[in-house]
């Protein structure tokens, strides 16, 4: 299918000069890899019809009336109602949404058909205070990885393309969100207790006192995280990029290290480090038993 990009030369990222056409081309090329991580998940769009410096800018969850019939969708129960959300099942869908001004794609930690049973657990790690030093984020990711490994869980890491890192744990979707989030909170509190000068679970910013917040709030029904390989609405068009753990030692590493101008050079040199993530789906009950 050929999707015509309306006003393809419109500048979407002024600092880098990337256009709407560049964005659409990126999503066309990345689709074979990105679809692994968004398949069967209702997607939330962050739309910027006039680019990151323009207005309006808005979040869209529901399928719009003007969407073509071939856009896949799923019913999602919310606290108050049931909504119809789109699902990305093809490169054409990604390109179509890019033409609609969608820059960022967010997905839940569970798949359609079992949206109350997560197959991912996420620790969201952002720099403390002014965010100029990325070293605390790297230290936190390593501490989380070790704590998870100590209870038998394999984890993966990703730059968010914004300010921090995500540590993700693939799960077998056998437990509900309450159990998964409770486990994540317990792990965060244990890590903070082992490193009281570096990390905290205090939600209130005035109680953190320069320590990095171990955030597990995304582990809840209908909460979302940025999709791997999604572009972020930041200068330079940075990308949420899966990493290998040894890349945390790279002195050039930062949350916006990769963008639409260099990501394919990276992927030409190495396979996606998350390619086998779904082969490591794990049972949370075993980890809970080992942590007691």
UniProtKB/TrEMBL annotation:
Span of domain DNA ligase D polymerase: 19-274
CDD domains cross-referenced by the UniProt entry: LigD_Pol_like
Any matching Pfam family: LigD_Prim-Pol
Any one GO MF annotation of this record: ligase activity
Keywords: Ligase
Keyword Protein biosynthesis (UniProt): no
The organism's place on the tree of life at top rank: Bacteria
InterPro entries assigned to the protein according to its UniProt record, in alphabetical order: LigD_pol_dom (IPR014145), NHEJ_LigD (IPR052171)
Gene3D superfamilies: DNA primase, PRIM domain (3.90.920.10)
Keyword Chloroplast listed: no
Record's protein name: ATP-dependent DNA ligase
């Amino acid at each position: 299918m050929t999707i015509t990009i309306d006003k393809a030369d419109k500048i979407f990222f002024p600092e880098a000069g990337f256009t709407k056409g560049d964005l659409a081309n990126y999503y066309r090329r990345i689709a074979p890899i990105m679809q692994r991580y968004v398949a069967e998940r209702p997607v939330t769009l962050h739309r910027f019809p006039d680019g990151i410096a323009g207005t309006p800018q808005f979040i869209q969850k529901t399928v719009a009336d003007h969407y073509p019939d071939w856009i896949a969708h799923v019913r999602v129960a919310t606290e108050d109602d049931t909504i119809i959300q789109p699902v990305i099942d093809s490169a054409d869908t990604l390109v179509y949404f890019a033409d609609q001004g969608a820059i960022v794609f967010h997905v839940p930690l569970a798949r359609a058909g079992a949206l109350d049973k997560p197959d991912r657990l996420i620790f969201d790690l952002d720099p403390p205070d002014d965010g100029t030093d990325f070293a605390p984020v790297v230290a936190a990711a390593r501490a989380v990885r070790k704590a998870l490994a100590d209870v038998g869980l394999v984890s993966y890491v990703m730059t968010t393309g914004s300010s921090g890192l995500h540590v993700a744990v693939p799960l077998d979707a056998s437990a509900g969100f309450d159990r998964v989030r409770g486990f994540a909170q317990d792990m965060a509190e244990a890590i903070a207790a082992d490193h009281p000068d570096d990390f905290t679970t205090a939600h209130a910013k005035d109680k953190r006192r320069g320590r990095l917040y171990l955030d597990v709030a995304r582990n809840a029904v209908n909460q979302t995280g940025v999709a791997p390989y999604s572009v972020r609405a930041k200068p330079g068009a940075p990308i949420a990029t899966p990493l290998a753990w040894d890349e945390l030692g790279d002195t050039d590493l930062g949350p916006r290290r990769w963008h639409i101008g260099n990501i394919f050079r990276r992927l030409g040199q190495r396979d996606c480090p998350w390619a086998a993530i779904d082969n490591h789906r794990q049972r949370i009950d075993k980890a809970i038993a080992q942590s007691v």
